[in-house]
Specification:
Shape: globular
Number of strands: 28
Distance between the termini: 37 Å
Helix content: under 10%
Structural class: mainly beta
Strand content: over 45%
Number of helices: 1
Radius of gyration: 20 Å
Low-confidence stretches: 1-18, 180-193, 196-201
Order of helices and strands: HEEEEEEEEEEEEEEEEEEEEEEEEEEEE
Length: about 350
């Protein structure tokens, strides 16, 4: 079957699965085992639509206007694209040789992604519909990605190398200033912050510092002030706390049996750690570095999302085929959304 016929059939399926219009604020859930994106009304905790996506979807990110969702297809070399308003798939992004895409973040009008099969972090520009920046980490299983608020630094976890790559711009070490298209900056020189103006004068290059952390480093998050990066190490059952300024681990603290994702609350007070090996959601006091609470769940947890407003946390209960709703004030599970098989990646869509 050629691509056009496949896209046509997928589009028909999307229309059949649509039940109601997408709310202005929507919770997005990926069903890995059903290759679908679920659109949930967070007010009623009901599913309003399901949209087919590509093979083995893992992570989802949303455009700044809340109208388009991007999904990594971990089973190949594409990023699925979904129109959230029309509730239908659009033409996927072909990554070519950049296989096994996983982590995603949409920031500054651009889509950052990882590709484990190529050991890279890349960036896609929806305006030009082109990949405009790629950099190799030299590490194994380059997995999740996030970008600093000032767009100057990119962070990615490398699961099998037990490292975090911190990617930022710095002066070229020796030799004349390089020329050419370079990195995310525009213009003839490879300088400039991602998406910003080119840096001219002294030669600039992208510098990678690989910081050793624990084994199985997957989920991580920056504190709201950008000063610390907290990394969940699944195999070591620890959390590595990196001082971003010095690029060093300053403390290692206990974690869960099999930490999968780590998210810090919007006020920076607590770090939530999901556990694929137990039924408790771990909550750590960021200031004291001590356990604050364990929230009992009906199944093991995986994906994590801090909802805007700072009052609600969502976590996927993969083996239960559901998403749990956690109230941040009471630190208790207050609701549940039943999904299809294998819920994992989560995102929030706020339409403008």
């Amino acid at each position: 079957m050629n691509f056009r016929n496949l896209l046509f059939l997928v589009s028909l399926g999307a229309g059949a699965l649509s039940a109601a219009s997408t709310p202005t604020h929507a919770l997005l859930v990926l069903e890995k085992e059903q290759n679908t994106l679920v659109i949930v009304d967070p007010a009623s905790l009901t599913i309003v639509a399901r949209v087919p996506v590509g093979d083995n979807p893992h992570e989802v990110a949303v455009s700044d206007d809340g109208k388009i969702a991007y999904i990594t297809n971990y089973g190949g070399n594409t990023i699925a694209v979904v129109d959230l308003v029309a509730q239908k798939p659009l033409a996927p992004i072909d990554l070519g040789a950049l296989r096994l895409p996983h982590g995603l973040e949409f920031v500054g009008g651009k889509l950052y992604f990882t590709a484990e099969g190529a050991k890279v972090v890349g960036r896609y520009d929806p305006g030009t519909q082109k990949i405009d920046w790629v950099i190799g980490t030299g590490q194994n299983r380059t997995h999740m990605v996030t970008v600093s608020k000032d767009l100057k630094t990119v962070f990615t976890s490398n699961v099998s190398s037990a490292t975090i790559s911190i990617i930022e711009q710095g002066p070229v070490q020796g030799g004349p200033p390089p020329r050419g298209p370079g990195g995310p900056g525009r213009g003839p020189y490879p300088g400039g912050r991602p998406g910003g103006p080119p840096m001219r004068g002294p030669g600039m290059d992208w510098i990678i510092v690989n910081v050793p952390v624990g084994h199985g480093s997957e989920g991580f998050d920056l504190t709201p002030d950008g000063k610390e990066l907290w990394v969940a190490n699944a195999q070591d059952q620890t959390i590595s706390i990196i001082d971003v300024a010095t690029r060093k681990v300053v403390e290692t603290i206990p974690s869960t049996q099999a930490a999968n994702r780590l998210k810090i609350t919007l006020d920076g007070k607590y770090a939530f750690v999901s556990d694929m090996g137990g039924n408790d959601l771990l909550v750590i006091d960021v200031a004291t570095r001590k356990e604050h609470k364990k929230i009992a769940l009906p199944a093991s947890s995986e994906g994590l999302l801090m909802a805007p407003g700072g009052r609600t946390v969502y976590t996927t209960l993969n083996t239960r085929d559901a998403v749990a709703v956690i109230d941040l004030e009471t630190m208790k599970m207050t609701g549940e959304v039943k999904t299809g098989r294998g819920p994992d990646g989560l995102a929030w869509a706020a339409r403008r």
